[in-house]
Amino acid sequence: MNGRRKNNIKYGSRVFIVLKKDQRTGKRTEGIVKDVLTKSSTHPHGIKVRLVDGRVGRVQEIIN
Description:
Strand content: 35-45%
Structural class: mainly beta
Order of helices and strands: EEEE
Distance between the termini: 8 Å
């Protein structure tokens, strides 16, 4: 599943995100969602989330 729709992302979901510093390279970081930060229901670059370890980025993929 992709991370462009807010209703796909649940608290505690395991996801791949792209951190701000990695946007040019597209390097993905795996983690568990703590907070959903994007207010709108969709975003073309991915919904912004905070992981349980405190890192913030946009969701690229939701891991089932």
